[in-house]
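Whiteboard transcription, Tuesday session. T.W. wrote the structure tokens on the left side:
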């Protein structure tokens, strides 16, 4: 077993003992998503793949929050935001704007990208090191700006 899923399972036990029903529910969602992939693909997820699952869950929560806000459903927005906080607790520390910009500039230099057409090359270089640490939609728009300018 890898360290991240062990940590999540330990936190589940602590939430059960502590009676934290909200956190327990979110952790069960996380473990369910991980287990689903493990069963479907007949593998045991490593930390990198587990981070991808968590990243996907974060994206889903952000999209739901946006949609609920647009619909004026602040009650549902609050639920999604609370889940987002628990999920993000398992992700590595988020990159600052300055760190993102530096990584983007380094990837542009490394790939030799000169225009928007080369954006895919830059994204491929950044995907793994930024996994779970940055919103890739934001990274994409920053790359576009850098390549357009």
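and on the right, the sequence the group agreed on:
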């Amino acid at each position: 077993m890898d360290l991240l899923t062990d940590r999540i399972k330990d936190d589940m036990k602590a939430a059960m003992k502590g009676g934290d029903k909200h956190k327990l529910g979110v952790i069960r969602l996380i473990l369910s998503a991980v287990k689903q992939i493990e069963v479907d693909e007949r593998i045991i997820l490593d930390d990198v793949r587990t981070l991808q699952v968590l990243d996907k869950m974060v994206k889903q929560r952000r999209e739901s929050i946006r949609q609920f806000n647009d619909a004026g459903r602040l009650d549902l927005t609050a639920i999604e935001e609370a889940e987002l906080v628990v999920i993000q607790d398992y992700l590595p520390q988020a990159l600052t704007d300055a760190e993102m910009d530096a990584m983007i500039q380094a990837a542009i230099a490394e790939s030799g990208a000169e225009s928007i057409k080369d954006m895919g090359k830059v994204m491929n270089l950044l995907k793994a090191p930024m996994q779970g640490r940055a919103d890739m939609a934001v990274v994409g728009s920053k790359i576009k700006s850098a390549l357009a300018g």
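Someone added at the bottom: Helices lie at 3-18, 21-41, 47-70, 74-88, 97-111, 119-130, 136-148.
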